[in-house]
From TrEMBL:
S-adenosyl-L-methionine binds at G55, W57, D75, D93, D117. It catalyses: uridine(2552) in 23S rRNA + S-adenosyl-L-methionine = 2'-O-methyluridine(2552) in 23S rRNA + S-adenosyl-L-homocysteine + H(+). Its EC number is 2.1.1.166. It comes from Methanobacterium bryantii. GO terms for cellular component: cytoplasm. One of its GO terms (molecular function) is rRNA (uridine-2'-O-)-methyltransferase activity. The gene is rrmJ. This is Ribosomal RNA large subunit methyltransferase E. The active site is at K157. Signal peptide: none annotated. Specifically methylates the uridine in position 2552 of 23S rRNA at the 2'-O position of the ribose in the fully assembled 50S ribosomal subunit. Residues 23-200 form the Ribosomal RNA methyltransferase FtsJ domain. Belongs to the class I-like SAM-binding methyltransferase superfamily. RNA methyltransferase RlmE family.
Length: 201
């Protein structure tokens, strides 16, 4: 049994589960697994989901926060709405100041959690894709400076490679606890890693 077959079978497993359980993306299981392990999103939380399309992570977050929480999803692409009054979608570039202002307006007060499963448009050139990934994380951290409450938390995807350790040091300056992890639903050979940043200073 080849390694490639195992990987494809695993991906197909989560894809079929997503269809069966009516999740918009197989990536939903990444957040389910991460939150089960670290208990970051809780009922009543206000959550910002950066790079949210097609909405798989927002869907999971909505299930957890319940009617008294809120999920603000941001993406360049329009996201098909959910039947929740506490779901707000912002179509825009979260690296732009005008989009950050829209996030603030939608939240009304500070967020408890910021999520980012955003990935750059891949060029196939490892070093360029790595730098683009780090740029996304740095922009997410800037948004955290503006909208995340003290003691708030983040889950951010980043690619491993050059600049990763420097980025990790930067995150540790802003949060008391920082961990790196990879959920079971991630592809083993993928360079993606998730930063779990807890208790913002």
């Amino acid at each position: 049994m080849s390694e490639k077959w195992k990987i494809e079978s695993k991906c197909e497993h989560y894809y079929k589960m997503a269809k069966k359980e009516k999740y918009r993306s197989r990536a939903s299981y990444k957040l389910i697994q991460l939150n089960k392990k670290f208990r970051i999103i809780k009922p009543r939380d206000y959550v910002v989901d950066l790079g949210a399309a097609p909405g798989g992570w927002s869907q999971v977050a909505l299930d957890i926060v319940g009617d008294n929480g809120k999920v603000v999803a941001v993406d360049l692409q329009r996201i098909r709405p959910f039947e929740h009054e506490n779901f707000i979608q912002i179509t825009g570039d979260f690296t732009k100041s005008e989009t950050v202002e829209k996030i603030k307006d939608a939240l009304e007060w500070n967020a408890d959690v910021i999520l980012s499963d955003a990935a750059p448009k891949l060029t196939g050139i490892k070093d360029i894709d790595q730098l683009k990934s780090i740029d996304i994380v740095e922009n997410a951290l800037k948004i955290a400076d503006e909208v995340l409450k003290i003691d708030g938390s983040m889950i951010i995807k980043v690619f491993q490679g050059e600049g990763f350790q420097s980025l990790l040091k930067e995150v540790k300056k802003k949060f008391k606890i920082v961990k790196t992890t990879k959920p079971p639903s991630s592809r083993k050979k993928s360079v993606e890693m998730y930063l779990i940043a807890l208790k913002k200073y």
